[in-house]
Amino acid sequence: MAQYQITVDDEILEGLFQRDGGVAKLVESVVNQILQAQVQEQLKAAPYERTKERQGYRNGTVTRTLTTRVGRLVLRVPRVRNGQFSTELFARYQRSEQAFIIALMEMVVNGVSTRDVAKITEQLCGTTFSKSTVSELCKRLDPIGQGWNHRSLAEHRYPFLLVDALVLRIREEGRDRSRAAMIAVGINEEGYRGILGLMLGDSESEASWREFFAWLKNRGLRGVDVVVSDSHGGLVKALHTEFQGCTWQRCQTHFMRNLLDATPKALQEEVYQQVRAVLDAPDLKTARLLKDAFVEAYAEKAPKAVQVLEDGFDDVTAVLVLPERYRRRLRTTNGVERLNEEIRRRERVIRIFPNRESAIRLLGALLMEIDEEWTTGRKYLNMDEYEAWKKAQEASRGSTQACAATA
């Protein structure tokens, strides 16, 4: 990773706290210095320096503006004779930042927003925007997001799949409507985590979830062994239809909330500890013994909680059949919930998306950046033990079927 030596003028430091736009001036100064350092690296020579390693000569600068949430930056991009100065700086300008700005602009342009939102747009972006500006930015950003969201998934198997949805407010036909944004996260056979796709549905109905899962499979999703989700009725029905033969793990976090809601307040803390012990059991046999003991102890004191545990026991402990190292990461949808929190940070500012395209643009851009970090970073899980365990399970089933056939 390159390191740069940056200097800051006293005037910029004073303005940082004394006038509007001080942060933008500071960022502008830093970025311009980075650009000069990068052109020096590429030319292998400082201005007016004579060296044998020199790769070219400077040819002045060209002014370029960059709109960010701290304000508009005026950058002096170096030019090089008989060549082109290349920098990843602008490529690294996050797509989610652009989508965020576009969503805010659309709210103002389409008349959806209030004066407060218009004020926020000017404060965050440092300028006002016309319809043509919005259209041009969308043309550049949308194909990138659509290409990512519709990419083929056939390159890998995804043994583990985690799915969840969050509700967004979107303006359609002149009315504000609630729509479900469905998101899938997969862990492939190499142990890398990735965001597989995003789709907007009218609601969290079985039809919407089935459409979402069918879309993922049409793009090449395969090899799914375990699916983790909450117990929403439409979602569970769609899972059993589209992923027949897979193990469904009910999210333990959602389950505990449901169980505690059915528990008398005075007993909630001790019930939590008792049920947590059931879920953390070393194996399914031990979990069942602890569950039976809980049922006997609380049948009269907390009958509704007992009923919730008995009804959901098999689904909420499905993960216990897996090797221990995989249970913690697959017992909840917390990983997807954290994605939702990142989305909510942006969505709370926008409040109401002006259309579906705007929602897909912002969410897709943000998820695409996170997906890039995940798929190029460290492995999320070591899958060696899982693959060995799976082969042993298949061999055991084959042996059992052979014995049955012989008998």
From TrEMBL:
InterPro entries: Transposase_mutator. GO terms for biological process: DNA transposition. It comes from the Bacteria. The keyword Glycoprotein does not apply. It comes from Alicyclobacillus acidocaldarius subsp. acidocaldarius (strain ATCC 27009 / DSM 446 / BCRC 14685 / JCM 5260 / KCTC 1825 / NBRC 15652 / NCIMB 11725 / NRRL B-14509 / 104-IA) (Bacillus acidocaldarius). Keywords: DNA recombination, DNA-binding, Transposable element, Transposition. One of its GO terms (molecular function) is transposase activity. This is Mutator family transposase. Required for the transposition of the insertion element. Belongs to the transposase mutator family. Transmembrane segments: none annotated.
